[in-house]
Each structure stands twice: as structure tokens, then as C-alpha cells.
Amino acid sequence: MNIQDQNQPAEREPAITVLDDKQVWKLIESTRFARLGTLGEDGFVHITPLNIVTDGEKIYFRTAAGSKLTQLILEEKVTVQFDRAEGHHAHSVNVFATARLLTDSQEIDEVKKLNLAPWLDTEKLEFVELTPQKVTGRRFRLGH
Known about the structure:
Elements: H1 3-7, E1 16-18, H2 21-29, E2 33-39, E3 45-51, E4 53-54, E5 59-63, H3 67-74, E6 77-86, E7 89-102, H4 105-112, E8 126-141
Antiparallel strand pairs: 1-8, 2-3, 2-6, 4-5, 5-8, 6-7, 7-8
């Protein structure tokens, strides 16, 4: 085999691959940074960065009192989205979920065990649980 043959893949993978739920959850579980889409009172979708953790079934984040929390209380349906690019691939995942502010101290203590700490040195006292209703994901082959 010559060098040129070694550089040519035997079969090119598709440019776009739809991921199954198991593949999507594997990506979610290894993600710590995402974007939250909520419907604002003004009728527009608001995108907010957040750090997340998961217990394998649900997604959690912390927030402070403010517009994000107000939007979650007014409309529980949200979308969490994240992208990742590494090597010759990129991934895009959307999680369509319902949000719930945790108020039970036992539930909050369980989430604290997941090491959910804000990245910024700000006070974020509220814990939010996202229950996925649907997940979608795609892998993109980058380059030529």
C-alpha cells in the first residue's frame, strides 16, 4: 500500500449523521456548558449561557433571582442547546424539556452532590431541574 492509499478513507462517512438517544445522552453527560432558550414576556426567545450537570435522566443548573428565573416560572417549556467541535467532527444537541424550580431541601441536597458549582463568583441560590421530553442530535463531518 502506498502513502496515498493510506490517506484515503475506505468509505467516507456521511456529512451529517443523526444521533440516537443513547449517543445524545453520552454527549449531554460529558457537557458542562450549554445555552438555555426560554420564551420571554416580550414574545422573543431569550438565550442564556449556563453550566449544567446531569444525573443521567435530568439536567440541573443554578441561577440567581432575575429574568431567567422569572421566565422559567412563567413558561416551563425550555430548550437546552450545545455544540461541540473536536478533531474532524462537530456535534449539535437540543434538549426539549420542562423546567422546575427545586424547593425541597432534600432534592437540593441530592443535586449538590453532583458538584454543580457556578463558574462565576456570583451568588446563585436557586436550583433548577430540567426534565427532557425529547432530545435530538447530529454529528457533522468537518473538512473536505
